[in-house]
Each structure stands twice: as structure tokens, then as C-alpha cells.
Write a structure and sequence with these properties.
single chain; 106 residues; four-stranded antiparallel β-sheet; two-stranded antiparallel ribbon; 6 strands; 23% strand
Length: 106
């Protein structure tokens, strides 16, 4: 076996990794810049909690597993609607608040 035959596996592997422009697969799912965040009790948070990346042609909404009325989505950002107070009845007293997003096609 000559040295030429030894070059085939690396060349084949390189050919599989390098694709012509425009042929790469596009990610078709939503993502956020943070998975977990903490909010100090009795703090009114006015800035967005997370930024949501939404692929073109899709929209994101809060899903049925989200804590009711605790969050809202404006544009591509998630905001907290309430001030966490662990002494008052509400979404933060007995459990963590959840924001569950659903991505749907327009």
C-alpha cells in the first residue's frame, strides 16, 4: 500500500465535514441565553430574564406548564410579571415558578 492510500481516510473525512455554502442544516428550534436564573425576594425585576432565539417563521408562547400569570413574553424576551414574595400566597410561596415555552409555526 503506497502513501497515496494512507491519505484517503483523512480526505474522505474532510469531504464529509466541508459542505458547499448553503447546504448546512438550519436549527429549527427555540433557545434561550440562560436556562436557570435567580431573582431575589421582594425585588421588582424590570429587565428581561432571558432572551429567546426564535427561528424565522416561528413564534414562541408560554406553555401550559408555566406558572400562571407569573411570566410574559414580549417580542423575543421573557419577563417576570410579579415580585417574588415567599410569605404571600402565590406562585413563589410553595414552589419554584416555571416558564415553559412552546414554539409554533406561523
Amino acid at each position: 500500500m503506497g502513501s497515496w492510500a494512507l491519505l484517503w481516510p483523512p480526505l474522505l473525512f474532510t469531504g464529509l465535514l466541508v459542505r458547499p455554502p448553503g447546504t448546512t442544516a438550519q436549527a429549527q428550534y427555540c433557545s434561550v441565553n440562560k436556562d436557570i436564573f435567580e431573582v431575589e425576594e421582594n425585588t421588582n425585576v424590570t429587565e428581561p430574564l432571558v432572551d429567546i432565539h426564535v427561528p424565522e417563521g416561528q413564534e414562541v408562547t408560554l406553555g401550559p406548564l408555566s406558572t400562571p400569570f407569573a411570566f410574559r413574553i414580549q417580542g423575543n424576551q421573557l419577563f417576570l410579571n410579579v415580585t417574588p414574595d415567599y410569605e404571600k400566597a402565590g406562585p413563589f410561596r410553595d414552589e419554584a415558578a416555571w416558564a415553559h415555552t412552546l414554539s409554533t409555526d406561523h
